[in-house]
Amino acid sequence: MSTDGDGRRPGANGPGGGERRTRRDDRAERLVVAAFTVSIVGALILAVVYIAGGQAQLEGVALALALGGIGLGIAVWARYFMAADEVVEERHALASTEEEVTAFTAAFEAGEQTLARRGLLAKLGLGALGALGLAALFPIRSLGPRPGQGLKNTAYGDGGRPLRLVDADGVPIRPADLSRSSLTTAWPEGHEHDADASTLLLQVDRERFRPLPGREDWVVGDIVAYSKLCTHTGCPVGLYQTELDLLLCPCHQSTFDVLNGAEPVFGPAARPLPQLPLDVDEEGFLVATGDFSAPVAGGFWDRGRT
Amino acid sequence: MTAAGALTKATPLSRRTARWLDARLGAASFVRKALDKVFPDHWSFLLGELALWSFVILIATGVYLTFFFDASVEEIVYQGSYVPLQGVEMSRAYASALDLSFDVRAGLVMRQVHHWAANVYLATTVVHLMRIFFTGAFRRPRELNWLLGVGMLILSIVNGFVGYSLLDDQLSGTGLRIAYNIAISIPVGGTWLASLFFGGEFPGPDLIERLYVIHILLLPAVIIALLGAHLALVARQRHTQFSGPGRTERNVVGERVWPTFAAKGTAAFFLTAAMLCALGGLAQINPIWLYGPFRPAEVSAASQPDWYMGWLDGALRLWPSWEIRAFGFELPTPFYPSVLLPGVTFALLALWPFLEARITKDRREHHLLDRPRDRPLRTALGVATLAFYTVLFFGGASDVLAVTFQTSVNALFRAFRTALLVLPPVAGFVAYRLCRELARRDRPGATDEAPAVAPAAPEDGASHRRAIEPEDEPERDPASTAGVPRG
Ligand code: HEM
Ligand code: FES
């Protein structure tokens, strides 16, 4: 390592080697040797582990040894054998001097005048750039469709006729398939991949269930259906506390009262889970007679406008 | 080529290469000046460097991952070597991340180092920012560099989120759905914004591919450009230093870049890389095979985002269920904690140098750093702010904490909401008293080691104000103000 010799800490070893070696130097040097050796060993371990089939933990450790050995070696080297003198350097003013500013202003204004002499051209040129900028925005429009009714409707409302509810495999569901203790997730038939149409089917305690006014016939026996998407930020509401008849959203812990129109009783959600009007068809399968009572998932500014 | 005469056959190749380059660039004098530059030494100056080196590791491991990762949502049947998921339908994106974890040799360690590097990079960035804040290093002439730093922080947080959203596992899908619902909560433009970005309604068929381009090209390119400017400004303006014997506003006292500082920097790089590799090897992170492929109707309970997203998650949880509705229009709940709060947070952060200059009327150049205790009001404000975001962060883990401590989520929410209002002022007050006390203890033996910026005065309101205001000197001619040595 070449140093210019001035101000090295006492005992530092220069390339000339004219100074007396101290025990401290010897120890430091041995440490550097050991560190670099560890690094080489680490690299070898890495190669062996890789050839032997690879193993994440060992690879990480081997890499750490290989890299850390080099790092430690250089750190000790710098600490013991490099100039640690304090050098003082003047700071120069950052701002330009008056003369420089004047010279710059003069040069800039000279050019500006050339432009100003054809002022109309310059303005038109700027106008053209602006128009290009605006026109360039239009391709961005291609990135996605106009947000339309899609946010407000689901497949349940599409056909204007009752749609069967099916499970993830497309199998229709009968009321008898449900049990009191479990949640069933259902979709409108033919739309099992519609993220916004996922529906919770719940069997509730008929004695305590209080249907909302006007929704008395939205249930089939003791079965009620709500949107599965939390009205906060749309997470699937996946936890059902059967004894309390509460639905819990795992994302931010909003809690909805199943017996009372799925009104939020706790947490950041502000609106009830939209309810789905249920019925059974001639073959005894559950159907939805219309769309959810409100747009599903999180709110947006014109959610209430039709 | 006048210089060529000095070369002989015995000249080493490295020298000759240097000569060759210099003949074409004329760079020798410039580089010599760079090598001679002086860099002040203090442990806290290492923080920015650690962030830089973590970022380098992020790029290195990230490039490796791109050779194997397949950002496609095309559904395939998994046939890889992770038995529990064999035969399961999933996207190519998720399958290729599983392959990286199980079938690409050294793939898992690279994935995990990448993820750990992201966490460490953002952590060191934030601590670096705290160092800048508490020592007043953002003051004139370094306001621009503060702005560049805040810009990098925001983009890096976004890129981290986008990064772990690529893998199309259950956790990342849930995060993206929340992001979609936050986007549509923005009044008027929100639904458009979401539709353009997601290519339609959530999840959108092109989403993962778009996120991929953003993650590996767009944001890294912008961050690298900002980083270059950030470092160039440090070189141009020179580093700040703490005051001490012989250190003034007009000089820089430290060690030369070549070789001492360069060697220490290189050592720091290798040690950072070593730490990240040890973490990536030994500490499991984001075990996506446990989460399963993304299914829109499912959610994994107790899902936790990366730490730098935690405060936003906490804010979403703790914000009350307010929703403003009028004339069929509404302002949904998530808007406040997820759009307004980060907006205000980063706006205030970015504007802080200008706000403080306005409050203190101190618009002079500063190259000597404050000790936090000498600026008790600023320090108190910083500590209070940190307390606020720390409470939000832990609020984001409310469900996990509820299980750990066997309490109801209900009670925890109430505790967190209270803490959010009470803790920041308390923490700020404690920090303020601590600063005053430390500064007072310094005073009897005060030498030039610690310039007593805060005037010795009894603890009353008037002196508190003066503590943040340095000498009320009238603004000097800005062109010639090279900083006035104090103390
Ligand atoms: C600010 C910089 C960056 C941050 C914060 C970041 C963060 C992340 C995170 C947290 C992940 C998830 C990792 C996992 O759990 O598997 C990820 C994935 C990924 N990142 Fe980055 N990253 C950054 C830059 C880059 C760059 C520059 C590239 C490539 C040029 C890259 C390529 C990738 C790829 C291909 C993946 C997905 C593959 C996988 O993880 O299995 N990243 N990133
Ligand atoms: S998404 Fe359900 S509580 Fe936030």
Write up what this structure looks like:
The complex is a heterodimer of chains A (306) and B (487). Chain A has 306 residues and is α+β, with helices and mostly antiparallel strands. Chain A contains 4 helices and 12 strands; from the N terminus they run ααβααβββββββββββ. Chain A has a 7-stranded antiparallel sheet with strand order 10-5-4-3-2-12-11, with no helix packed on it. In chain A, a hairpin with a 6-residue loop joins β7 and β8. The longest helix of chain A is centred in the first third of the chain and has 29 residues. Chain B has 487 residues and is mainly alpha-helical. Chain B has a domain of 253 residues: Up-down Bundle (Cytochrome Bc1 Complex, Chain C), CATH 1.20.810. Chain B contains 17 helices and 8 strands. In chain B, strands 1-5 form a two-stranded antiparallel ribbon. In chain B, strands 2-3 form a two-stranded antiparallel ribbon. Chain B is globular, with a radius of gyration of 26 Å. In chain B, 41% of the residues are buried. The C terminus of chain B is likely disordered. Chains A and B meet through α2 and β1 of A and α5, α7, α8, β5 and α10 of B.
Descriptive tags:
heterodimer; A: 306 residues; alpha+beta; Rieske Iron-sulfur Protein; 2 domains; 7-stranded antiparallel beta sheet; 4-stranded antiparallel beta sheet; 4 helices; 32% helix; 14% strand; flat; disordered N terminus; B: 487 residues; mainly alpha; Cytochrome Bc1 Complex, Chain C; two-stranded antiparallel sheet; 17 helices; 8 strands; 61% helix; globular; binds protoporphyrin IX containing FE; binds FE2/S2 (inorganic) cluster
